């Protein structure tokens, strides 16, 4: 990868004319290639660092603050590496290459943030919790109505029947969803379990573990 950057820069010099380029031009091309390599290597290092904790193969959810802290640590290490490599040539061009590196890292961090958010144990739970809450509430209200109202009251009987229909329909809906999306239901239950662990402070450093082959 590094050799390719030098070849491209030198080829561009010869492309502009038949004469052998001057030494100062050769130095500029070498510096440009060096800046490119510094950017690519620093960006690759950032990806390697973040893939371990929040990449596609990462298994656990990280709290946003924890992910941000790991991101900043990785950025500091990568920029330090960039500065150690891009150390000669036009300072303005070095600064531009440094900014390009930071932009690449920023774009990658958005991707890691999205991947991490998709592993949030609380994400999507409302899809199942809201219908279940309605069903449970309807069941409880019907039980209260049947226990307190007179069996001769048409209003109580109508209300009891309506509540019965509500929780029956909701439970039937959940059964249908569960039969067609068994895997998603299992994942949701797993996320709920993880959410309870996170809420109780059990997430800790284990959130940064990755699946090993």
Write the layout of secondary structure elements.
Blueprint: H1 2-15, H2 23-54, H3 64-85, H4 91-118, H5 126-148, H6 154-180, H7 182-199
Description:
The chain has 213 residues and is an all-alpha fold. It has two domains: 2-118, Methane Monooxygenase Hydroxylase, Chain G, domain 1, CATH 1.20.58.420; 126-208, no CATH class. It has helices at 2-15, 23-54, 64-85, 91-118, 126-148, 154-180, 182-199. Helix 2 packs parallel to helix 4 (91-118) and helix 3 runs antiparallel to helix 4. Mean pLDDT is 78; it is low at 202-213.
Give me a quick take on this structure.
This protein has helices at residues 2-15, 23-54, 64-85, 91-118, 126-148, 154-180, 182-199. With 213 residues, the chain is mainly α. The radius of gyration is 30 Å and the shape is rod-shaped.
Beta strand count: 0
Task: Please give the count of helices.
Answer: 7
CATH superfamily of the largest domain: AHSP
The stretches of 5 or more residues where confidence is low (pLDDT under 50) are 202-213
The biggest sheet amounts to: none
Shape: rod-shaped
Task: Tell me the structural class.
Answer: mainly alpha
- CATH uppermost class of the largest domain: Mainly Alpha
Average pLDDT value? Answer: 78
- Helix content, binned percent: over 70%
Distance between the termini: 28 Å
Portion in strands: under 5%
- Number of separate domains: 2
Question: Can you write the helix and strand succession as a string?
Answer: HHHHHHH
**Rg from C-alpha positions?**
30 Å
């Amino acid at each position: 990868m590094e050799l390719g950057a030098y070849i491209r820069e030198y080829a561009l010099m010869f492309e502009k004319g038949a004469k052998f380029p001057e030494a100062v031009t050769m130095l500029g091309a070498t510096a440009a290639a060096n800046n490119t390599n510094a950017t690519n290597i620093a960006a690759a290092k950032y990806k390697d660092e973040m893939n371990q904790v929040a990449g596609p193969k990462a298994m656990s959810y990280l709290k946003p603050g924890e992910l941000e802290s790991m991101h900043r640590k990785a950025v500091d290490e990568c920029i330090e590496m960039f500065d150690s490599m891009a150390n000669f040539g036009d300072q303005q061009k070095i600064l531009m290459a440094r900014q390009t590196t930071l932009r690449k890292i920023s774009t990658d961090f958005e991707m890691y943030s999205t991947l991490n958010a998709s592993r949030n144990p609380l994400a999507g739970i409302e899809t199942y919790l809201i219908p279940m809450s309605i069903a449970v509430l309807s069941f409880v209200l019907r039980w209260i109505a049947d226990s307190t109202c007179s069996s001769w009251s048409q209003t109580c009987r109508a209300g009891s029947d309506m509540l019965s229909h509500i929780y029956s329909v909701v439970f039937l809906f959940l059964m249908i969803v569960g039969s067609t999306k068994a895997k998603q239901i299992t994942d949701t239950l797993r996320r709920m379990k993880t959410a309870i662990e996170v809420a109780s402070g059990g997430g800790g450093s284990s959130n940064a573990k990755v699946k090993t082959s």
